[in-house]
């Protein structure tokens, strides 16, 4: 019989993440065929807990850390690693991150953990928070945890007839097949891209879902500057 203490771990993780504006974003027990490679730090993993945030919940916690780490090359990634590595150690887990090699299927994990689907922009969309949410990492466990049952969530894009996100980009970076990254970055590098650089991606801002959870202006500028750097 599974130890009842394992059933409490997701709730305990939530309490450990709360001081940083982070939350568990669901989890699941791996099937035999899709467990991460045992080459990842020598582990054999059974469960994963996704970790992320909604809206600007992390911003005040991250910016306080950033003041003392102004020389960090990738400050948000480094903050995420500092926080989640400490939380992982507390629970006997391994922290992994979307930016680290070997790249792990974070989008597929997120879709399975929370039942989300991509928006027309390619970003996963949440039925309440819209496009204003993100995944900062995941915790891998060598044992099976107990997760609340969940299924696919309502996909808000199914009810959106106009798809304003697709027409809001001033350089039509989302026209045709996929996202034209080069066109987008070229626009941001020009003087005409100032509105996107300072206020956030116009296509993302055009989505009506979860608009009240949009990132704060400083957080928008931070993300756009990081994206423009490549």
Describe this structure in words.
The chain is α+β, with helices and mostly antiparallel strands and 230 residues long. The protein is built from nine helices and six strands; from the N terminus they run αββααβαβββααααα. A hairpin with a 5-residue loop joins β4 and β5. It is globular, with a radius of gyration of 19 Å.
Give the arrangement of secondary structure elements:
Elements: H1 4-17, E1 23-29, E2 47-54, H2 59-67, H3 75-90, E3 94-96, H4 106-114, E4 117-118, E5 124-125, E6 133-141, H5 164-167, H6 181-189, H7 194-199, H8 202-206, H9 217-229
Antiparallel strand pairs: 1-2, 2-6, 3-6, 4-5
Question: What labels would you give this structure?
Answer:
230 residues, alpha+beta, 4-stranded antiparallel beta sheet, two-stranded antiparallel sheet
